[in-house]
Here is the input.
Amino acid sequence: MLKPYVESARNFLRKPHTIQYPEEKPPIPENFLGRIILEYDVCISCGACERICPNRICYLVGEGKRPEINFERCYFCNLCVEVCPVHCLHMTKEFALASDDRKKFIYSPEQLGVRND
Here is the structure.
């Protein structure tokens, strides 16, 4: 009969496992695959990222033919980053991409070039 009280007292004295997000940032592993960024001036518009994308969410757009990515359907599989011959695409540790507007998930080449982490 006292066992639940003893267990409650033991848990009350323990340090909490949670963090106060967003004030405290969670620890992010070194190999984390987050939002993709683009080095706009390095891109040679080869289209390798567009061809390898399993979800077909990477498109070359604009006069300079730079990639546009729809993060709403992105797997974050890292294939586009791996296949890039000039290494102009990089994965960041940014993970908070939530929005109530679906159009905000479509990042133009200019938006891909901006780091937010």
Observations:
- The chain has a mean pLDDT of 91.
